[in-house]
Amino acid sequence: MAHVSVVIDGKTFRMACEDGQEEHLRTLAAKLDEAMQALKNGFGEIGDQRLAIMAGIMIADELAEANRQKRGLEAEISSLKENRSALVERYQVAEDTLARAITETARRVEGIADKLKSAGQRQPLHEEKPAAE
Q1: 2 - beta bridge partners?
Q2: Is the entire prediction scored with pTM above 0.90?
Q3: Torsion of the alpha carbons at 117, 121, 127 and 133, rounded to the nearest 10
Q4: Strands 2-8 and 11-17
Q5: Which helix (H) or strand (E) holds 17?
């Protein structure tokens, strides 16, 4: 367990945290100190306890807003995934339809080519003229 000293509202507090979390704890303490300083600047000296409660509520409000935005983004991601799945399915249907149309067209072209080939074997396409004497 690591120990970190942080300064909040001009007072130093020694706190414990998980090893490796020291910088994160310092960042959180700095955010709380910033919120308390902003409140002090706006309201003046209103007492440590009231100041701490107001700062906590302010930070909790930010967290609630961040969670609301997160839920909105998660819903949007879910919707995009559903739309993507529908588009992939439509693409596959279109691709299958196109493949069948190409196959059918190729079959018809081959049939026409076969008919022309067999007609050409029975009858020359052009008549040979006798050479001029």
Answers
A1: 17
A2: no
A3: 130
A4: antiparallel
A5: strand 11-17
